[in-house]
Amino acid sequence: MQPVPDYAEEQGAGGETHQTAGNGVDVLTTQHGHPVADNQNTLRQGALGPALLEDQHFREKIFHFDHERIPERVVHARGYGAHGYFELTDSLADVCRADVFQRVGEQVPAFVRFSTVAGSKGSVDLARDVRGFAVKLYTQEGNWDIVGNNIPVFFIQDAIKFPDLVHAAKPAPDRAFPQAQTAHDNFWDFISLTPESMHMIMWTMSDRAIPRSFRFMEGFGVHTFRLLDAEGNSTFVKFHWKPRLKLQSVLWNEAVKINGADPDFHRRDLWDAIESGDFPEWDLGVQLFDQAFADGFDFDVLDPTKLIPEEILPVRIVGRLVLDRVVDNFFAETEQVAFCTQNVPPGIDFSNDPLLQGRNFSYLDTQLKRLGSPNFPNLPINAPRCPMAHFQQDGHMAVRNPKGRANYEPNSWGPVSGGPREDPARGITSFAEQAEGPKQRLRPESFADHYSQARQFFISQTPIERKHIGDALVFELSKVERPDIRTRMLSHLANIHDELVVSVAEGLGMPRPKPATAAREPRTDLAPSPALSIVGNGPEALTGRKLGILLGDGADRALFDALVKAVEEAGAVFEVIAPKVGGVPLSDGAVLAAKHKINGGPSVLFDAVAVLCSAESGALLARDKVAKDFLSDAFGHCKFIAYSPEAAALWQAAGLADEIDEGCIELTAAADARGFVQACAPLRFWQRELATDR
Ligand code: HDE
């Protein structure tokens, strides 16, 4: 294994760790190893005189600083990574020769990078967007990059449309806004002119596009791939990552507020979970099928805008992915990691999905641009953790420089001094597929149905999720200035589902247009797929989630302790919010330090909340605008809310006293705490939103 270099391991060529001063402290040096005497002042001619060109230390420092940035990723610029491992739990040896799928119980190191797609590197975490879910497995036969998303389908069917899609989604070229959002004319113009995107649009307008955290979302390889056995026989495969903590998303109104309160909400969540030892975990599932299944399936398995419902082809769990180590250096690891779809070990092969084929060109190309040298695979985060031997050499920043005379193959210097040789038995091979046909630019007829699976997704959602899809479309299209683009979009929705087009047209205050002309008549006979719902696949406990406890002075100590105990028993965590971060005195006189001052810890940062106070502090909270927002947001976002009886004044002041429902649980005694935590299991009390809407 190649360790990630760190400061402590930095060595000069002589092997010594650091130059040491008389007092034992490491001496600061230049990049060239010269000890530095003064790191505060440039070399000047006199105290107020001009700076001198010969100040090599200054020039080197500024020169390096000026070159510290590399181009951000053209898409997926904002991302966050972590290390871990993949463990095989069910052998696939019968259908696949890949080393990683042979021996149950064996682990290989992994690095995962999650990302948003459209925003730049400094954009917010809770943008409405697809999330990247890119996994690098350092297998014994080379790196395998499964460069997936948290949505199992894609906007377009052919890679040649990718630059158009991305240009339309990114800030407009003249004004350079809007950032990290799709609620604008250019995006919906392109989408409404691209009917093949309709299935994906159902997903991106669903709550899947505003996940609660990376830990609570699925990952998908999207395309159909091939597994090859030792004889070269092929089995088609689709890859799924399923979070052990189950699915969870936030509400749009909540996402908007989270972006203001904590733009790093997702990366902080991942960092905190791993650092506290609560390692996120996903199961790797595979959908395996043969050509006969592909031929009999309703849609073309090479079309990346289609999925195969799990109810038709079950997902077989074969392994688990655990993230157990944060990075040491964000740039070296998360920024420099270079995923390439074409990085597959022997036994994994591609299908002819035209999007996948295009990606296989794009990723290598982009890494050269981004990392600046064909030697990027030698960076520690990208380097294989298995032995490697090849004759690629030289170039910018060549750090891996083979010794010896032979740098070509075949050669006559023999297998030992002449270097490595090819091995037909172990080496990577492709499925021997027959390919022929006229050379042409053509979309296959079998890709022509753009609406049926969009409809299937919609009817697979629970009522609240359907409502959110409609709400999201109304929000996004309300930001579109040109009415003709909105109308064109509505005409596509008319091909998807009546309920949807009616609610969106109504929400926009626009007439319902005639359905768009469809390349193929939409089907209405596809059965719902319950696996596609988030709410239907949500958690069974508060485990891994966070309770926010707003405390007023004099809050009951026993109640607080009981709540904390119940939260910890559930495998959840809590944070204290108080009027002053320095501490809040409880009923027993003890002062408890707070994590947040009220205006720094709004309820949007928590999965459920509690308000515990005394009568006096309750009255003070009732006069505090931010405390009222804390409660009314938690209520409006359908969260479960626990409160001590003394919080009555706050309910009153927030205008909610008459609306208290079963999702709001009064804690009159310490014994009530456990019941509250159990009641929180579904995470949201959706009846509240449905009732309000009615
Ligand atoms: Fe990507 N994509 N993509 N993409 N993609 C990139 O590679 C591209 C697509 C995905 O965390 C780029 O290193 C094309 C589908 C992820 O570093 C670039 C097409 C899926 C990441 C690129 C697609 C993805 C990328 C930009 C259409 C889900 C982030 C920087 C044919 C299955 C990886 C980079 C990371 C990144 C090209 C479509 C996932 C330019 C041409 C479909 C998760 O190479």
UniProtKB/TrEMBL annotation:
Top-rank taxon: Bacteria
Organism expressing this protein natively: Novosphingobium cyanobacteriorum
Membership in a protein family: Belongs to the catalase family. HPII subfamily.
PANTHER family: CATALASE, CATALASE-B
Function: Decomposes hydrogen peroxide into water and oxygen; serves to protect cells from the toxic effects of hydrogen peroxide.
Pfam families named among the record's database cross-references: Catalase, Catalase-rel, Catalase_C
Cofactors that this protein relies on: heme
Catalytic activity, EC: 1.11.1.6
Record-level Gene Ontology MF annotations: catalase activity
Protein name: Catalase
Compositional bias of kind Polar residues: 17-41
Chain segments carrying region Disordered: 1-41, 401-426
Residue span(s) of domain Catalase core: 29-417
UniProt keyword Heme, yes or no: yes
Catalytic activity: 2 H2O2 = O2 + 2 H2O
Alphabetic keyword roster: Heme, Hydrogen peroxide, Iron, Metal-binding, Oxidoreductase, Peroxidase
